[in-house]
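Handout, section 4.2: multi-component inputs.
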Amino acid sequence: MKLDTVAIIGVGLIGGSIGLALRQRALARTVVGIGRTASRLRVAEESGAVSRVTTDVRQGVADAELIVVCTPVGHIADHVQQVSRVCRADALITDAGSTKGEICRALAVGLAGGGVFVGSHPLAGSEKSGPEFADPNLFEGCVTVVTAAETASERRVAQVESFWQSLGSRVLRMSPDEHDRAVAEISHLPHLLASALAAAADPQDLILAARGWQDTTRLAAGDVELWRQILSENRRHVLQSLDKFGKVLSKFRQALEGNDPAELVRLLQLGKSNRDSVAS
Amino acid sequence: MKLDTVAIIGVGLIGGSIGLALRQRALARTVVGIGRTASRLRVAEESGAVSRVTTDVRQGVADAELIVVCTPVGHIADHVQQVSRVCRADALITDAGSTKGEICRALAVGLAGGGVFVGSHPLAGSEKSGPEFADPNLFEGCVTVVTAAETASERRVAQVESFWQSLGSRVLRMSPDEHDRAVAEISHLPHLLASALAAAADPQDLILAARGWQDTTRLAAGDVELWRQILSENRRHVLQSLDKFGKVLSKFRQALEGNDPAELVRLLQLGKSNRDSVAS
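Output:
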């Protein structure tokens, strides 16, 4: 897909990486970076992630045929409505939020003005944040979930899918609720456990932290407010995943309390089978 | 420290890495690899980790002034006693086991023959196992805990410390029980949580597994029987660490159930502070 003007709202790790990928692959003639913080916009502009920057949404989206909202999940629905009020009538609006249910429900009542919204979640990123960590290959080989809302036509959903594919991503179509259930298990619960494990450590013992602790707790270094919003928005599914995890953890505990080597082997083997089925 | 003959019992990741480090740093004239499996011994010999190999403990340790027992924790005390029966009277025996309490208690009653035992635990390694993953720089910058038993003189403990330092490791001296408490928290609990998280995942959802899930569950790919032994040997401390973790996890749960953003931020920030204090 070849685009004329793309606007990116929020030029952090994800927004900046989208800009870099679009420009390095020559997929858009102009990429406009929109944000509130001049210093972040400057970093994005200087890195080549965007062609020009502005703090004015109206001015930034005026010519855009595609607008990607890359702000923290708690603000996405509001930002989509702000965009809708000032964008072209035929604009396509998507996002990169880690939750989809609340956003899609908030927008299902209808947009305030022009444009059509189709939700997206690229499962890329890291514990790092900010435009200085943007990477043009961030989406290469990653999976992006696209959530088809009833208000968007098949043609518009397919355009969003094609956009992510052009950045190197594989695309999966899911309902917002199915997405939120699955990422609670595969992304949000791991974050919560990494944070709890790191929080439970006695700082004096951290001199012994080697690769195992580092890997298992790496997500805990992530942006606190960003993850507070993600966990809050998806708390119903995260609590369900936590219940499911708690049942497995209880089995480990019982196997240790009962000194049951066969059960411990069975549980460790179950974890290993799932882990071995995924890339390192 | 410059050695004439060192014998390594068990030439897996740790034993093979010790051999490679000794030989590449020219710290020993002869390194003998001792094991039960001819194919693994062959890999160690061909990689240059050992000068010669044998399946006969008596023959392997006959000339050794230092013997490092690198077998799984459940076998270490027995292997040290086997070595003691056939080694030089002045030999120094150490190990690389991830638990220390049971091993040191079993050996505190006295060795069956010659030699002196000082326990060690290099906090290196990965989810990989086997001599093919051996790395001469595995101990570079890692911490090795040396547990001073009452039966070993200060001079002998200092020799073991000097040995690990010569491989590039920093050394910490701890009691076996203090070691087991601390590694339960920093190494064994993370392994258990990684395994439980991986075991709790629905295989159908693993298509969404990205870097976060991969990092958090990486330890679950480790050798099942090796980790069964570690968790079993140290189960008392692991259960205590699990209790402590459970209390923190309950706070996360309550913050989600009560939709309490301030408390969620506090907990995430606590985890981030600990995580940020350790290298990535």
